[in-house]
Design brief:
This protein is α+β, with helices and mostly antiparallel strands. It has five helices and ten strands, in the order βββαβββαββββααα. It folds into two domains: about 70 residues, 2-Layer Sandwich (Phosphorylase Kinase, domain 1); about 120 residues, Transferase(Phosphotransferase), domain 1. It comes from Stenotrophomonas koreensis. This is Phosphotransferase.
């Protein structure tokens, strides 16, 4: 007879609850949408479905979660051991950022743009010091050579380089510095239109304390 699983709540917000499920030696993450308010169920379902699609496209790619199940109300994925970047900052760790860039390249070759890498909570420092990626709710999946995917991939890289500028500035190359100075129309449009709306919804309506991802996430 299998033992009863131990369930620990890691995070809860208006879009559901994130649970750590442990059964014996196995553990995984469950995103539970059943607790979502009725008026947010559609966007919560849309975000979870988006994440499921991205995780499915990732397949067995290293340093990313595995999709275990998605039934429209619960999304389950493999648990990744590690600490968020802001909890274990890779200061002066050139190898971390070199590996992180290779990780992004692998992601983009599969036609996936993460689209939410400004948040340090979405970058993991794993037990061996290598990078990992989580939270693919905003990920975009498409043809890796399409203009849109290449543009989003460049934004992913810019966000990584911003973290590198924070924690390992001496390792920035001249090319990386030029890329950081370039601002795409996507960024300008987001700051002019999308971000004010996002802040109003999350801070005024949902009462989130948004600090660019600085909080416990898995």
């Amino acid at each position: 007879m299998s033992s009863k699983p131990t369930i620990t709540a890691l995070k809860a917000d208006s879009f559901g609850c994130i649970l750590l499920v442990q059964q014996g030696q196995q553990c995984f993450i469950r995103r539970d949408l059943s607790v979502t308010p009725w008026w947010l169920r559609l966007p919560a379902w849309w975000l979870a479905r988006r994440e499921a699609r991205a995780l499915s496209a990732l397949g067995d790619m290293p340093a990313t979660p595995r999709l275990l199940a998605w039934d429209g109300r619960h999304l389950e994925r493999s648990f990744m051991h590690g600490a968020a970047m802001f909890k274990a900052p890779p200061r002066g760790d050139v190898a971390y950022f070199r590996q992180a860039r290779r990780l992004l390249q692998q992601l983009h070759r599969r036609g996936i743009a993460h689209n939410d890498l400004a948040k340090e909570a979405n970058w993991l420092v794993q037990a061996d010091g290598s990078p990992g990626l989580i939270d693919f709710q905003l990920a975009v999946v498409g043809h890796p050579r399409s203009r849109w995917l290449r543009l989003l991939a460049r934004e992913d890289l810019r966000h990584l380089l911003k973290h590198k500028r924070t924690y390992c500035p001496q390792a920035l190359t001249p090319v990386e510095k030029r890329l950081l100075r370039r601002r795409s129309w996507v960024r300008e449009l987001w700051f002019a239109t999308g971000k004010p709306v996002y802040r109003f919804i999350t801070r005024k309506l949902l009462r989130w304390e948004d600090n660019e991802g600085r909080g416990p996430r898995q």
